[in-house]
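help with this record:
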Amino acid sequence: MKTMDAETDRPQFDSLLPAARLDRRGFVTTLAAAGFALAVQPVQASTTIATDATGLSTGEAGIAVAGGTLPVYFARPAGGSKLPVVLVVQEIFGVHEHIRDVCRRLAHQGYLAVAPELFFRQGDPRTIENVAEILQSIVAKVPDAQVMADLDACAAWAAAAQGGDPDWLAITGFCWGGRITWLYAAHNPKLKSGVAWYGRLDGAPSENTPKHPIDVADALHAPVLGLYGGQDQGIPLSDVEMMKEALAKAGARSAIHVYADAPHAFHADYRPSYRKAEAEDGWKRLLDWFARQRS
């Protein structure tokens, strides 16, 4: 079965589908146990990282936004104040356990991490078994402008309600969220830093997605580090090179690092695409990139 990449409209996610199809009860049982999306079952338990919440304050909250209440997961050092804020943007699969774990990892580094459910108006991708259906019924219906406004609301909430520093805001995102990271860096003039993990860089414009990162390379308010895989079947290296050239032409402080042997989603430790060495190096680069903007 061929499925389509959320970011390139090319075949990409076959490796995410289970080799032996479980019945729906089996999927739901697995989801309840592991906290991951149905479309990416079974989870690669041997590589999945589980970060504990010792010394942290974690939880769920709701933020009033246009069209309803935006659910968010947050993690922060317990008892901290004026914490640097990082918005964590999901893949197409929603704010499942991997994204929450990323928030806890950041919290252990002293950040207030906030992961919003940016598809909440369109549906819950964690309950859908088929990637193509997630793309068609949910992702394609999400306007970029709506996402930018929701992220702004998260930044304001973090400062007002969770002890976040209103003067230091960063963003990181994976896959679909990687593209959003670039766009948000062009949207919010208060942003200090961004790290985009294998996010789509170019594509045909549409009503919901009128621009792509290549179109805003000369309009970034904050430096973005892009982390990409040289073996990514959905994001061609030609797009990566075009983005590098556009950033250089604009005199941007941003940079792109390519892991020559890594596929798409190499940071996703719960999936077969995970590459430990590249993921760990990318995480070190993220922490260093954020630290530079705080010094």
